[in-house]
Amino acid sequence: MKKKTENKWWKNSVVYQIYPKSFADSNGDGIGDLKGIISKLDYLQALGVDVIWLCPIYKSPMADNGYDISDYYSIDSQFGSNEDMELLIKEAEKRNIKILMDLVINHSSCEHEWFKKALEDPNSKYANYYIFKEGINGNPPNNWRSIFGGSVWERIEESNKYYFHTFAKEQPDLNWECEDLREELYNLVNYWLEKGLGGYRIDAITFIKKDQSFKSFPSDNDDELVDCNVGCQNQIGINKFLKELKEKTFDKYNCMTVAEAPGVPYSDLKDYISDDGYFSMIFDFSYTDLDVVDGEWYKARKWEINELRELMFKSQLETEKVGWGALYLENHDQPRSLDKYIPKEDISYESATMLATMYFLLRGTPFIYQGQEIGMTNCKFNSIEEFDDISTHDQYKRALSAGLSEESALEICNRRSRDNSRTPFQWNDKKNAGFTEGTSWLKVNNNHNIINVENQVNDENSLFSYYKRLIKLRKESEYSDIIISGKIEPCLIEYDNVIAYKRVLDNRAILVINNFNNSESSIKINEYVKKVILSNKDELLVQGLKYVLEPYQSVVLEI
Ligand code: NOJ
Ligand code: CA
Predict the structure, then answer these.
(1) Hey, which of 53, 333, 389, 416 would you mutate to test ligand 1's pocket, going by the most ligand atoms within 8 Å of its Cβ?
(2) Which pTM value belongs to this model?
(3) For residue 418, which ligand has an atom nearest its CA?
């Protein structure tokens, strides 16, 4: 067993997120797999990443594409075998790459043997591994709404008993109040760490503690239900579980942990991410979800770059006060960042490299989601049937019942569906974008004839090469220490739609300026500029004390 050292290696790392189902298919069944990933490790090494986060690959009936686990100790046969996983860890290690698995321990699959045994025998110890309650007057035990729609309670046939699910009904929540269950979970966490895993991305962890009164709340919608967050997100008492989880597992290893932790107020952040916090870092959704209301895509909201800037800097400064953060633009639950942050007609090499520069040099560990490095965009889905994602189908129904037309509901799904980021990775311009020899499980984006790895990997002027440059700048340049350890100082906020900040270490500093305007921005810089470190355009026009940034120009200056 490796002892924990003070070496926080993840601060120097760049993480690459893989959605295994859509990355590379090695055997032609239309589904990406571990052998496929192994065959692409050289590509990832060439990009320069140090860590790979794999979305869930454990045995699963795939109601939520692996976020419903039926056996935590086995790799699903769709993805390969346990031997393949060990091989992946070894092959990655040869390239100095560590592997993170996704840890889904708020819920299991309803096909997990614990759940089956709990249903079979209500007196077995497994019944206490889940949350069962009696219905009230023929109704569910309370009025909480599940994140994927409908009640959080599912009735057990021929009984008045219900079980609790924060997400889909196929994902029953585990009862963290039960000590035996918690021990089972710690064992499985340690099992994979013992196999040489680099750490975990931890799913939906702020949901593990439920308000034990399970009381109803006033409804927030026409369905008479209320968002379950009121009783199961970041509830009082969660600290005990998180502390115990960390002490019995992560603390024993020098591993990286990044938690999906929605609902943590900045006032509690210290407990989560300080040096002895529960995790190495957490994802902050405050600015990436600024286009929707309460996570409900059909309630789109208008937003502006100035607002993004304000929320993002708030997050940076609050994080800096207490610990370390995760930087990201995309993941498997988000649409593609180019479609989200850049007007459609302006999506280009310039705007894509600007977006990359903007987030990559902030303070924290950068994450790249598969395909982001080549500029993959949202895909056009022509009907609701073309979508696979469980939550897209729910949001579509919710949009219809809120009175939207089928056309608008479809448009919303096209804009926000999680399938936008789950379409197969675009390796080349051939059939199925080189992802599979067979029939792909999900639609391949038509634009793979232009946007693909083969077109970019050897081109110095491609987005891929720009990402490579950013990674080098962050990891192995004379500015690495500033980028990794420097303080963050937002600046130039008097300029609309310009996101600019300094990174400062002792008496050295860099200034990063990103012009989100589709017009020139003439910016006065009060410091002496020593050097242009990076620009996404050949020219940088200087007029007296002013720097004239072209539309979507991004510059990194030493000051
Ligand atoms: C968050 C994951 O990122 C998402 O994909 C999943 O559907 C839910 N948690 C439920 O596990
Ligand atoms: Ca396959």
Answers:
(1) 333
(2) 0.97
(3) 1
For residue 536, give the nearest of 515, 522, 510, 519 by alpha carbon.
515
> CB-based contacts of 472: which residues, under 8 Å, 6+ apart?
48
Could you say which ligand is closest to the alpha carbon of residue 19?
1
Please report, rounded to a whole number, the percentage of residues in the chain having pLDDT higher than 70: 99
Q: Residue 84 has which token pair?
A: 């393949």
Q: Which residues pair with 390 in a beta bridge?
A: none
Closest CA to 101 of 240, 241, 222, 195: 195
Q: What is the mean pLDDT of residues 483-490?
A: 98
C-alpha distances (whole Å) from 403 to each of 49, 294, 407 are 46, 18, 12
Q: How far is the CA of 438 from the centre of ligand 2 (A)?
A: 9
How many whole angstroms from 49 Cα to the centroid of ligand 2? 24
Q: Are 330 and 342 in contact (CB under 8 A)?
A: no
| CA–CA gap between residue 203 and residue 55 (Å, rounded) | 10
pLDDT band at 1 (very low <50, low <70, confident <90, very high): very low
- Map residue 559 onto helix, strand or coil: coil
- Residue 456 CA to ligand 1 center (angstroms) comes to 31
Closest atom of ligand 1 to 333 CA is 5
